[in-house]
Design brief:
By secondary structure, the chain is α+β, with helices and mostly antiparallel strands. The chain contains five helices and eight strands.
Amino acid sequence: MGDENSNLETVRRKQARSGRVDYGDPVVLHDSSKRRLVLIPFFIPHSDHSELAVKLVTYEKAPPPEDWILIEQKSISIGEASSRKLLAALRSRLAVAESGESGEFLVIRVAEGTAQLGAHDPAKVAAALTKVLSQDEIVQHLRGTELTTELVSAWRRNPTQRDAICCCSTKRIAR
């Protein structure tokens, strides 16, 4: 296993006795004097891929001096789809937590290349994006990059929007 500050981690995958699934080493998510929360990964082989499922288990520790004895309290099994939803929710909430401020946040997943506005006010989204695009590190990157035709076309289609962007209130953007 790797420590929290390392970019390197060893993950072991072992076959269960049944031979139908594999499992990984438990990951201790929380450990206090009274309780422990553990994540146990399961790898479910299919003909064309392996699915990740996890089991979250809470343990109660016995009173000292037997506090090394763990008594299982509750467990919940989560399939891959739910695990992915949990991961996405944690990533966006952690990005918001890093801001240290209260308010509304617009979280845009940049790896997917597109974003759905949903119920967000387009003017506020544009204002927030303008704020991000005006950051020095982004400007430096854009100077050496050929802008996509979509960005240039969008900018040219609505030239009045460029002026309106500056006077709108913005929602913060978390990355």
